[in-house]
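Troubleshooting entry. The earlier prediction with glutathione gave an output that would not parse, so I re-checked the input for stray whitespace and re-submitted. Clean input:
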Amino acid sequence: MILFSSPASPFGRKIKLALYATGMQNNVDVRVGDTGDPESEFKKLNPLGKLPTLSANGMPLYDSRVIMEFIDSEAGEKSPLFPASGPKRFSVLTKVALADGAMDAAILMVYEGRFRTAEQRVESFVDYQRGKIERALVALAEQTGSYQNGATPDAAEISLACLLDYLDLRALVEWREFAPSLEAWITDFAAHAAGYQATLAPDMPPAPWRNAR
Ligand SMILES: N[C@@H](CCC(=O)N[C@@H](CS)C(=O)NCC(=O)O)C(=O)O
């Protein structure tokens, strides 16, 4: 299997952490996809040109939620990613949608700076996206208890960790203001979730739970 991602992609990191959580991290060849290059190999697999994209024995899979489902099904009954059925399953799926939606808003804030000049910047658009992130953080903190030390993370916990670290990487929103309880949570997550340090983006700002790189 080939995973196209990029070192800073929070959605790509979800997949990397899911591979660790299921013990499948060595089954995948991770390659860098360049979203800015029209000729980048992964765009032949994913016409949307988005990362992550997985080639599973030739079958293209995207987006990150579909790939998470694929990893879950490959891992079989022992997969920690999604409860099999019932309210617990839909609770995890909805938390994933919430954290992923905040990451989408964060990416749009980054792209506002990347694709528009300073004169073209639309502040109301940036504020609109920031509002989504801030509300999501409050809700995620309300919904998230302590991380179960030693337990492998589920898909919702993986998305939440990727969101918090991406907000720090791009310095988009000071999440500790809106979700102070998540600082203890991510400290526990970082200490116990396999692959946490190995999958951090380069150039992450320091935090007590991150090893210096
Ligand atoms: N809903 C998608 C979002 C993926 C996404 O936005 N990825 C970013 C990189 S982190 C990307 O590929 N951006 C390029 C683009 O939007 O064209 C998923 O869950 O995989």
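This one parsed fine. Strands lie at 2-5, 29-32, 53-56, 59-61.
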